[in-house]
Amino acid sequence: MKYYFSIFFTLSVVFNINVFGQCTIKYKPFKSGEVANYQAFYNWGFIWIHAGNVQFTTSEKDFRNESSYHFEASGTSLTNYDWLYKVRDKYQSYVDKETLLPAYFERNTYEGGYKAYEQYNFNYPQKKIFGIIENNDVPRTKDTLALSTCTFDVLSAIYFCRSLDFANLKINERMPITTIIDNKIYNLYFRFLGKETIENRDKKKYRCYKFSALMVEGTIFKGGEDIMVWVTDDENRVPILVEAKILIGSIKAYYTGATGLKYPVTSLVSSTSK
């Protein structure tokens, strides 16, 4: 069950982008009050099991006397599966309202008895990230990492990428990625695969931009471009579907709806649901 909850990691890494060499954004496709929901499915043989839910929330709050965007995300296993593998994941990030660069990130997760805590303070004048890490294997530890241009945490990265201009991307164009994950800086990339109309699990069809992403080989992913993401081809840039191959199967995250979207969902082309 834990492999599905890497879906939050998947969404975050796929949309963490250090593009065009600048931390610039075209516009902000979201507003305070946006809430987007997803259902997580894990492939068990020939069966897809609804294992949990993921939610992303946007609001405005003061952070260190500055008006900031506050992004939150949570991943929770269904109570029916808590006996097998209980998951209670929470992430939050405070970012600059103009650049969307992160000022603070916090992860507090519980997955099958494994607890993990991460905190990152981004200091731009000193070009450093001050971190605190603690988990079942590592006692509470402080660390300092170099802060390079356009480095995002796994949550602020999603919103930054949604704010970029996809219109000028070329098929198979690769874009570099810089992100901090588990107290390490990773330089990966994602690849633009063109436009495609897809049918969601609720039978609604959306015009989408399609991307693949290079992942780090490890305990969950095999490595390589084994993740696919479809993002709405409209001004909201909302992820509709995420598919990922993992070491023991595959996972999917389906969009189930959102409230507080900034723009009309013009990418919705039809619905065959009754």
Describe the structure.
The protein is mainly beta and 274 residues long. The chain has one domain (4-271). The protein has helices at residues 7-14, 82-85, 156-162, and strands at residues 35-44, 47-63, 66-77, 87-96, 102-111, 114-123, 128-135, 141-146, 174-181, 184-199, 204-215, 224-232, 239-246, 249-259, 268-271. The protein has a 15-stranded antiparallel β-sheet that branches. Strand 10 and strand 11 form a beta hairpin. The longest helix is centred in the first third of the chain and has 8 residues, at 7-14. Residues 1-10 and 12-21 have low confidence and may be disordered.
SSE topology:
Blueprint (H helix, E strand, L loop, with lengths): L6 H8 L20 E10 L2 E17 L2 E12 L4 H4 L1 E10 L5 E10 L2 E10 L4 E8 L5 E6 L9 H7 L11 E8 L2 E16 L4 E12 L8 E9 L6 E8 L2 E11 L8 E4 L3
Concise structural overview:
This protein has a 15-stranded antiparallel beta sheet that branches. It has about 270 residues and is mainly β. It has helices spanning about 5-15, 80-85, 155-160, and strands at about 35-45, 45-65, 65-75, 85-95, 100-110, 115-125, 130-135, 140-145, 175-180, 185-200, 205-215, 225-230, 240-245, 250-260, 270.
Task: Decide which structural class fits the backbone.
Answer: mainly beta
Largest sheet composition: 15 strands, antiparallel
**How helical, in percent, are the residues?**
under 10%
Note the beta-strand portion. Answer: over 45%
How far the N terminus sits from the C terminus, by CA atoms, comes to 31 Å
Cα-based radius of gyration, to the nearest Å: 18 Å
Number of domains: 1
- What's the average pLDDT? 84
Name the helix and strand elements from N-terminus to C-terminus, one letter apiece.
Answer: HEEEHEEEEEHEEEEEEE
Assign an overall shape.
globular
Poorly predicted runs of 5 or more residues: 1-10, 12-21
